[in-house]
Amino acid sequence: VKDCIDTGWVSSAGAYVDRFEQDLAVCCEVKHAVAVVNGTAALHVSLLLAGVESGDEVLLPALTFVATGNAVAYCSAIPHFVDCEQATLGVSADALEQYLNEIATLDGGVCRNRGTGRIIRSLIVMHTFGHPSDLPGLARVCEKYNLVLIEDAAEALGSRYGDRHVGSHGLLSALSFNGNKIMTTGGGGAILTDDAVLAERAKHLTTTAKLKHPWRFDHDLIGFNYRLPNINAALGCAQLEQLPAFLEAKRNLAARYRERIASIDGVTFFVEQPFVRSNYWLNVILVDGDMTQRDTLIGAFHESGLLVRPVWTLLNRLPMYMDCPCAPLPVAERLEQQIISLPSGVTLGG
Ligand SMILES: *Cc1c(COP(=O)(O)O)cnc(C)c1O
Question: Taking each helix axis from N to C terminus, what angle separates 39-49 and 66-74, rounded to the nearest 10 degrees?
C-alpha cells in the first residue's frame, strides 16, 4: 500500500491489480480472477456473461443480501425466488427440483416458466454466512434444466466444499471484499471463472470495453467502469497474506460459541456440514419462537451492549421485488424468524 502511495500509482493503472488477481486465483483454485470495484458489480457482470438477457428470469434464494437480487434487476431480468434448506441455509436442491418439475418445461433445451412464458436462464446460489450450499445437488438440477450456475460467494472466501474451494463449481462466481467481509480491500470484489474467454470478456466489460491501443479511445461495447483501483488491489494482496490467520480466528471463535451455546435451551448454534469447511464468516444462532420473540431477544442483547442482528428481510417481501415470481418458502420463512447473527470479528477469535 505504501508502495502505491510513494510511486503515485494509486488509481486505475498499476501492477497490484494483476498481482491480486493472480493471488486470488491461486487462493480460490480457479484459473482466472478478475478484480472489480465491489461484489455487486462482480455479480452483475457474471450474469451478463452467463447470457442473462432482458426479460429472462433468474432463480435465487429469497434468503440473501439484497445485492443478489439487485444484480439480476440491473440486467433487466426478473428475480425468481426459491427456498433454502435448514442444513446449509442455501438453496435446497430437492425443493428446487420439485418446484421446477411443477412450473418449468424444457423447450428445445431452454428452460421456460410455464406460468409466465419467460426463459429461466440461470440459478444463483449463495453461500450463506460462508457455509457452502449443496453444490453437487444444485449443479445436478442446473444440468437437468439447462440453467447456468452462478455462485454468489461474496461471504465465502476460504470456504471449501469437499476438497475444493467454493467459487469453482459455477460457470462464474462473485466475491466481495467489502469492509464487513472476511477480508477487505476497502471496497472491492472479483469474478472467478475457469473459462479463459469469459475471463477476458469480464476484464473488457469491467474496464469500459476499451480496445487496446497506445493512444486511441475506441470502445466496442457499452462497458462499465467497474475496475478495482490499484491501491485497493494492494490492500487485497496484503489481506490475502493474512487470510489463513483470519480463517483460523473465525473458526476458533465459532468453536467457542458452539461450546458455550450448546447448553442453552431453545437456542441452536449453526454448524457446518461434515463434508464442508466453512469460513464461519458470520456466526449465527437459531432461536425457537417467532419474530416477536426474536426481536425481544435482540432488544435485550442491544441493551446489554451486544449489537446482534436479525437476518435479512426475505427479498420477496421488499417493495421492489414483491411482484416477482416466487416458490413456496416454508424453510426461508421459518429461518427468517429464527436467525440472529452474533459478533464475529476476527479480533474476537484471536
Ligand atoms: C456483501 C454481499 C454482496 C455484495 O458485495 P458488495 O461488495 O457489498 O457489493 C453480494 N451478495 C452477498 C450475499 C453479500 O453478502
Answer: 40
